[in-house]
């Protein structure tokens, strides 16, 4: 249970922000997700900030995908802090009732994930000195990273496809998510080879 809860927290946060980014960019906002607003790009386009809104959406997709796939929980959680705080400032300045409280809960969940990696922050602050205090984690391979990167790329590729065919777009995004999950299998295969054939 000690390891499962951080994983579930990562998946929930990842799904939340991945879906929020995808719904902003998909044709007709036809994507799954529970937080919005899906019309952000159109609204900011009125102020010539459409490109900025698209950047926010792509950032949400990327950071959310890191957490959803659980491959880059630490990096995704670090990147999530400024994203949530920026969104929080927008909601406060716009007087959106309730949304700041939801974001505060999501921020706390993100801080919980970061707490699981607290042994990594000493070397960041001390710029490299860790005294051998890092907890060991499962080793990852370059091949696994490449498979994950292919899965992330398919998320972005599915966006323009959604304007032609939603079924193919959803399938492309799903294949990308499956690839990201399978990247752990690729790791175990290649790290085992390295151990047996030094």
- Spans of at least 5 consecutive residues whose pLDDT stays below 50 are 194-198
How many separate structural domains? Answer: 2
Describe the largest sheet. Answer: none
Question: What percentage of the residues does DSSP assign to strands (E)?
Answer: under 5%
Strand runs, count? 0
Terminal Cα separation, in Å?
A: 35 Å
* Number of helical regions: 8
- Output the helix-strand order: HHHHHHHH
| Overall body shape | globular
Q: Mean pLDDT score, rounded?
A: 88
- What level of helicity do the residues show? over 70%
Q: Quaternary state, please?
A: single chain
Give a verbal description of the structure.
The chain has 198 residues and is mostly helical. It has two domains: 1-137; 139-198. The protein has helices at 4-25, 40-45, 50-68, 73-93, 99-116, 121-125, 142-162, 166-196. α3 packs antiparallel against α4 (73-93) and α4 runs antiparallel to α5. The longest helix is centred in the last third of the chain and has 31 residues, at 166-196. The protein is globular.
Properties at a glance:
single chain, 198 residues, mainly alpha, 2 domains, globular, DoxX protein, membrane, transmembrane helix, transmembrane
């Amino acid at each position: 249970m000690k390891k499962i809860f951080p994983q579930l927290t990562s998946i929930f946060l990842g799904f939340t922000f991945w879906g929020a980014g995808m719904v902003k960019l998909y044709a007709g906002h036809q994507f799954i997700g529970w937080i919005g607003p899906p019309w952000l790009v159109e609204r900011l386009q009125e102020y010539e900030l459409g490109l900025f809104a698209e950047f926010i959406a792509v950032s949400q997709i990327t950071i959310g995908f890191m957490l959803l796939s659980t491959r880059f929980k630490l990096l995704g959680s670090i990147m999530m802090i400024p994203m949530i705080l920026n969104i929080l400032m927008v909601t406060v300045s716009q007087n959106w009732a309730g949304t700041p409280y939801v974001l505060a809960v999501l921020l706390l969940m993100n801080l919980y994930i970061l707490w699981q990696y607290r042994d990594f922050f000493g070397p960041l602050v001390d710029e490299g000195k860790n005294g051998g205090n890092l907890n060991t984690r499962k080793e990852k391979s370059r091949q696994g990273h490449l498979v994950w990167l292919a899965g992330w790329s398919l998320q972005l590729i599915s966006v323009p496809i959604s304007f032609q065919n939603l079924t193919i777009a959803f399938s492309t995004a799903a294949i990308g998510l499956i690839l990201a999950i399978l990247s752990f299998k690729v790791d175990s295969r290649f790290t085992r080879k390295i151990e047996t054939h030094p």
